[in-house]
Amino acid sequence: MQGRQIKQCGLFSLTLLATFLHCSCLPHSTGGKPFPETAEEIASYTKVAKSIIDLAVYGNAQNRSYERLADFTDTIGNRVSGSKNLDLAIKYMFSALRKDGLENVHLEPVKIPHWVRGEESAMMLQPRNHTMAILGLGSSVATPQGGRPMGNSMAYPWPNPNDAGPIVRCPMGLPITAVWATLIRSITPFSINSPHTGWQDYQEGVQKIPTACITVEDAMMMARMAKRGQRIVVRLTMNAQTFPDADSFNTVAEIIGSEHPEQVVLLSGHLDSWDVGQGAMDDGGGALISWEALSLLKDLGLRPRRTLRTVLWSAEEQGGVGAQQYFQLHKVNISNFNLVMESDLGTFSPLGLQFTGSAQARAVMAEVMKLLKPINTTTLEEHGEGIDIEMWMDAGVPGASLHVADSRYFWFHHTNGDTMSVQSPIEMNLCSALWAVVAYVVADLEEMLPR
Amino acid sequence: MQGRQIKQCGLFSLTLLATFLHCSCLPHSTGGKPFPETAEEIASYTKVAKSIIDLAVYGNAQNRSYERLADFTDTIGNRVSGSKNLDLAIKYMFSALRKDGLENVHLEPVKIPHWVRGEESAMMLQPRNHTMAILGLGSSVATPQGGRPMGNSMAYPWPNPNDAGPIVRCPMGLPITAVWATLIRSITPFSINSPHTGWQDYQEGVQKIPTACITVEDAMMMARMAKRGQRIVVRLTMNAQTFPDADSFNTVAEIIGSEHPEQVVLLSGHLDSWDVGQGAMDDGGGALISWEALSLLKDLGLRPRRTLRTVLWSAEEQGGVGAQQYFQLHKVNISNFNLVMESDLGTFSPLGLQFTGSAQARAVMAEVMKLLKPINTTTLEEHGEGIDIEMWMDAGVPGASLHVADSRYFWFHHTNGDTMSVQSPIEMNLCSALWAVVAYVVADLEEMLPR
């Protein structure tokens, strides 16, 4: 994921409020059909849901999504927007989806940012020599040739860095012309000298200065030094470069619907990652279960009434770039989008589904989630989340995101620690099962989800 | 700490057995004096123990050991054997102990290893390019000029690396002449791409080859690649150098005993660290609470019958080098060593004391630990631990080590993550209180601990 946005907190509250307002008037209808009939219809999927779960968790497909993810990330490594690795990843996945026998496998062209980190380093020179682990932020400009020493005469403490959430804004009122660069404490509750990267944007009209994240440990040490009245000088060297936008693709595969092929349940994760670690958690896992869900249904010969479409986004980390272009291209058919799903918060032990939609749609989804009782993931939470699907949700399409036990997510997010070692085959089996059951049943119901 | 030694597992079992054998015949005497009288004598320290605890945990000394440790490690940084930083650390501490008003502050010369890491890197070339995070092991030789590519045709899997414990031995029967270097999976249950270092020794008569630790993540990935039948090639470059032994010092400070100044309770931690992170946990914390204990007693005007001697060892990480020389110099007075204490397993939330000694001595220590009821750390465990005091314990001197909630110890041990960020002032207050109460009471009892 790109990094939670502060404005989403507001959205969350509004969604919650809207739901409370509906609590006292539980829906008796889900569009054209009386609700009890829909509930009965959904309950009739109990056996097929069980067969999907059995295949994913105990059957021949056991550990397949994990093994596929391991092969993918071990072979390609990380794959940042604009990189040769991302091209390789898209080719790998295009070929793998076709080989898997999925339908309508194709690539949809998009233009994506092309920023290259280059060599970077930060050396503390005062009060003592100390090599700092850093990661420049995406879109950052380089430092002037040879690096530039920064003193804390320019330092401006950010109030309550722990409370700021994963978006950092430059404090207001700071005379930006006096600042040569910004060093930001990595936004994580835990670190083993592990700096985080991420995307940043320059406000229009201000001078562009280099920006990098330092470790929690170094930030805490510098805070102690500053408190002691010590002068801190750091030599920062960054050779980042921004190139013209690059050509890339969103990667698509389908199981075409038997009755309403034009109507779509969209499953997704993003194929790009940051340029550190393996991008296994963010978002290899989400991409792979979105593939795996289709594989499971294909293996069972299940073709729903509507089309199941897996889309593996390009350049999510730069602000959902690939997904935005997909939306612009396909929004003309918005009435055919039944449900948009994204997994981008990790594929750890699944807890349930986060959902954004009308109270009527929520009531349907709550019935669907009951089908997941065999793996104890029946919870339907508020607020479907994901930068790649939020424009659909904003436009009124029901949206769902996978909710997992993510307490360690930000330990690894955008670091060199985002590797296959944080993934578990058992957890991925469960995520795949949940993803496949929800997608299949919603795509196969007689009626589309009410808006 | 240097790394737990496998042979200590055996020692532990024997100690445990010896204790069980004594369980059915609880001591009625602690040397010359009937045991009930000793217990009563110890109970009379309840009030003084409380005053020590109050000062450390709630009083003027609150957070002092933490603040001192932060100033020390932020100022000096890490301080590996033979380095200029270790010299600076010893000077810093000598000056600080004198300034604190402790007695007989002096340095005792020792000779210590001088190994310098130099630049090092590992680049995977096949099956794909990947920069690996590594840390060479202490005493390792360098690679030939320009680095050397290693293929996994030479790789030899170590069975159950998780079970091996922190000492790794080269598997028997491996034709060492065919091996150019060894890459070892870092021995930790958790990693964020964080390699560990440590000391290694070459067996006599074998060719010396370079040795480095790789991350858990890379080791797991290489295992997956090998399982897939992929050829792995890594270019390893290490420029480590070993220089002649360097001059250094054990650092000593005392509160001289009022009745038996020649009799000693020794408190210790080691001042050296590895050449990564800040060496705050290993073993800045242990060194600092061994200083703090004396400060607390001095502040309260408490001078025990016997001498309290804090020794901050040099070159523990290379095999207890400074402590071995101390033992050789002072063992002539072994009968005057009442109790030897070492804190080298972290200064996290204290649980109690680990103790090695006769059943009679254990009975006394169990009474002493009851004085720590106000901070709920009354547990007396088996097996006093610590490479710097083990020769005293082997020779029959009672030994004690601080037992803390150390479940995360090996996450940070010998990594760049061993910084002040893993320390807590509250936990260090409690450790200091425990350390001071035990040392003071044992040093002040009418009789020495029975052997």
UniProtKB/TrEMBL annotation, chains A, B:
Subcellular location: Endoplasmic reticulum; Golgi apparatus; Lysosome; Secreted
UniProt-listed Gene3D superfamilies: Zn peptidases (3.40.630.10)
Positions of the Peptidase M28 domain: 250-435
Domain of life: Eukaryota
Coiled coil start-end: none
N-terminal signal peptide: 1-25
Pfam families: Peptidase_M28
The entry's keywords: Carboxypeptidase, Endoplasmic reticulum, Glycoprotein, Golgi apparatus, Hydrolase, Lysosome, Metal-binding, Metalloprotease, Protease, Secreted, Signal, Zinc, Zymogen
Keyword Protein biosynthesis: no
Keyword tRNA processing: no
Protein family (similarity comment): Belongs to the peptidase M28 family.
Assembly and interaction partners: Homodimer. The monomeric form is inactive while the homodimer is active.
Name of the protein in its database record: Carboxypeptidase Q
Organism name: Salmo salar
Gene symbol of the encoding locus: LOC106606032
